[in-house]
Write a structure and sequence with these properties.
- By secondary structure, this protein is of the alpha/beta class.
- It folds into three domains: 57 residues, lambda repressor-like DNA-binding domains (434 Repressor (Amino-terminal Domain), Orthogonal Bundle); 123 residues, Response regulator (Rossmann fold, 3-Layer(aba) Sandwich); 132 residues, 3-Layer(aba) Sandwich (Rossmann fold), CATH 3.40.50.
- It is 43% helix and 17% strand.
- A six-stranded parallel beta sheet has the order 2-1-3-4-5-11, with helices on both faces. A six-stranded mixed beta sheet has the order 7-6-8-9-10-12, with helices on both faces.
- Helix 9 runs parallel beside helix 10.
- It is elongated and about 85 Å long.
- The termini are far apart.
- It comes from Deinococcus cellulosilyticus (strain DSM 18568 / NBRC 106333 / KACC 11606 / 5516J-15).
- Pfam families: LacI, Peripla_BP_3.
């Protein structure tokens, strides 16, 4: 009986693995640390890994980090932790990082420039190997090396980026509404001054021009990215115009839920009196009535990809700037319909 079997609360060690296989601990260490190539036979390596699995052996990350002179920790830096969009982002990034032997810490910031810069300066003094920075400014990234940063939803010269083709998705959403017969389409925009949100507004205006429509500034209202912001923004859209919009495209599902609240207060039915379309495809979009038509953004896959790209940067020679693109998908549910005549 080995020591782990005698005491089930004792964490298995490489010495336990060595005893089980009947070899030296140094040979086990070569295999478990990935240094066995050409030094330990394939058969013996397999036997060592099988023994490690049977004992539920987990390598000591702290010791490995000390040997390598690295913390083996990534920082996922995101805005607005209250936004449920970021839960699957973190899950994807953390799962991929753990596969590759890294931990992930989650760091929240607001979109103000001073907060971003203070946060980056603070993080750079801590034991973090690399950063996934979501929707961050060029000035803030200048405080960090290009060799340990991956950007998400922003493109800056010299940095790896993970991007979503938001303009294509917004056009799909607007074309869906036009296909239903809508021409009075409003935009509930978030008061977030970053590239991904600027792209939503820019594409909305370009689409109006492409359709030969006159842009109506009163049909584009900016609101805080929150449930209450969505409600107040919708009340402004639906109450201030002589010609009420028949459809609203929202910058996020969070805002769309607020629109539902405003519509109820105004006695408007969705989708009979007002069509609503969101962006993100949050889980809650399937749990409101009627279920929300929305653009799916692959949040979890983006988190996985960001962690992969960052770890590759950390463990390999720096490569040329790379941009990975993700596409959106229109999820048609029950919140959009033809306008009433």
């Amino acid at each position: 009986m080995n020591e782990s079997e005698k005491n089930p609360f004792k964490k298995p060690t490489s010495a336990d693995v060595a005893r089980l296989v009947g070899i030296s601990q140094s040979t086990v260490s070569l295999v478990l640390n990935g240094k066995a190539e050409g030094r330990v036979s394939a058969e013996l390596q397999q036997a060592i890994w099988e023994a490690a699995r049977s004992l539920n052996y987990k390598p000591n990350r702290a010791a490995k980090a000390l040997r390598e002179g690295r913390a083996r920790t990534l920082a996922l830096v995101i805005p607005q932790l209250s936004n449920p969009f970021f839960a699957p982002v973190y899950q994807g990034a953390d799962r991929e990082a753990r596969k590759l032997g890294y931990d992930t810490v989650l760091v929240n910031y607001d979109h103000s420039m001073s907060t971003q810069e203070a946060l980056i300066e603070h993080l750079s003094s801590h034991d973090v190997d690399g950063y996934v920075l979501w929707d961050i400014s060029a000035r803030s990234t200048g405080l960090l090396s290009q060799n340990n940063v991956v950007l998400v939803e922003s493109q800056i010269d010299g940095y790896h980026s993970i991007m979503v083709d938001i303009p294509h998705g917004v056009r799909m959403a607007l074309q869906h509404l036009v296909g239903l017969g809508h021409t009075r389409i409003a935009h509930l925009a978030a008061t977030v001054d970053t590239e991904t949100f600027q792209a939503r507004s820019r594409t909305y205006r370009e689409f109006f021009e492409e359709q030969g429509w006159t842009y109506r500034p009163e049909w584009e209202v900016r609101a805080p990215f929150s449930l209450e912001g969505g409600k107040q923004g919708a009340l402004a859209l639906l109450g201030s115009s002589e010609e009420r919009p028949t459809a609203i495209m929202c910058d996020g599902d969070f805002l769309a839920v607020g629109v539902y609240k405003a519509a109820k207060e105004l006695g408007l039915r969705i989708p009979e009196d007002l069509s609503v379309i969101g962006i993100d495809n949050l889980e809650l979009s399937q749990y409101i009535e009627p279920e929300l038509t929305t653009l799916h953004i692959p949040a979890e896959q983006m988190g996985e990809c960001a962690a992969q790209e960052l770890i590759q940067l950390l463990e390999a020679q720096p490569t040329a700037r790379k941009v990975v693109w993700f596409q959106t998908e229109l999820i048609q549910r029950n919140s959009t319909a033809a306008p009433q005549q």
